[in-house]
Amino acid sequence: MERKLRTTPMSDFQGNIKTTCLKEKQKRKRVGVIGAGAICSLIASACEKGLVKCDELVVYDSDSNAAEKLKGSTRFPVTLVPSFDRLLAAHPSVVVEAASQQAAKEYVPRLAEANFEVIVMSTGALLQLQELGSKVHVPSGAIGGLDALSAAALAGVDEVTLTTRKNPRALDMNNREEQLIYEGSAEEAASRFPREMNVAATLALTVKPAKVKVKVISDPSVERNTHEIHAKWRYGEIFLRFANDPHPENTRTSALAAWSAIQLLQKLLES
């Protein structure tokens, strides 16, 4: 008896190939970044060195020249996308907002609604947004001790002050003597200095509903971005001081702020 061989239609082969490719694509661990500046550059470097375990960066920046420069500066796989929607379509495991408060206001709510893990660097924007859920993460930024401050806030904080000193270059100033350029609330500080004082917003988010009093000093005698925090709470006082070198590619950003994003990114990708 002649046995008939069972054949599989070519369309089935093509369908299987497409399914396999889709599964392989979904297995790839991608990190999305909004903004191709100093923080994105550090993330790319950390990925290249294996500090951040992912397969590819997907970068969106409205400035295509900045995006191309970023891609050309690293050997790590970087895909540039022309729109925010194309970034979403790449299905990154985590998205890092590292652009501006305006970008955070526009994109973070959409990312939260789509259930993405999001790291927000422009934390000043979060003071103006509604609660966005547990997948929106704030790194410690240019300061630390946030766990202690958060615990103190649970018991009751009477007063929190933040005094920030920066070299005039970081504030687009040229004064030759120390000058107090701002004194007021953390909310107004983050709004008035959207790129320089996200640290005030991070502190305000940590101790809310307590209010944070902020002083910003332009001081030509300092080269490091210095933040001093004094909190009076129900059972004592907390004193914290941080003197951070500016990021070499952006004097407005402390190097510690950029590295705090790397640490949080590591944690989210490993969870």
| Helical content band | 25-40%
Low-confidence stretches: 17-25
CATH class term of the largest domain: Alpha Beta
Q: Secondary-structure element order, as H and E?
A: HEHEHEHEHEEHEEHHEEEEEH
CATH-defined fold name of the largest domain: Rossmann fold
* Fraction in beta strands: 25-35%
Q: Work out the number of β strands.
A: 13
Report the principal-axis shape. globular
Order of strands in the sheet with the most strands?
3-2-1-4-5-6
Main sheet specs: 6 strands, parallel
Under the CATH scheme, which architecture of the largest domain would be assigned? 3-Layer(aba) Sandwich
End-to-end Cα distance: 59 Å
- The structural domain count equals 2
Description:
There is one protein chain. The chain is of the alpha/beta class and 271 residues long. The protein has 2 domains: 19-138, NAD(P)-binding Rossmann-like Domain (Rossmann fold); 146-251, Dihydrodipicolinate Reductase, domain 2, CATH 3.30.360.10. Helices cover 37% and strands 27% of the residues. It contains 9 helices and 13 strands. It has helices spanning 10-27, 38-48, 64-72, 84-89, 101-113, 146-155, 186-192, 198-207, 255-270; strands spanning 30-34, 56-60, 78-80, 94-97, 117-120, 136-137, 157-166, 179-185, 212-218, 225-233, 236-244, 246-247, 250-254. The strands form 3 sheets. A 6-stranded parallel beta sheet has the order 3-2-1-4-5-6, sandwiched between helices. Strands 8-9-7-10-11 form a 5-stranded mixed beta sheet. A two-stranded antiparallel sheet has the order 12-13. A hairpin with a 2-residue loop joins β10 (225-233) and β11.
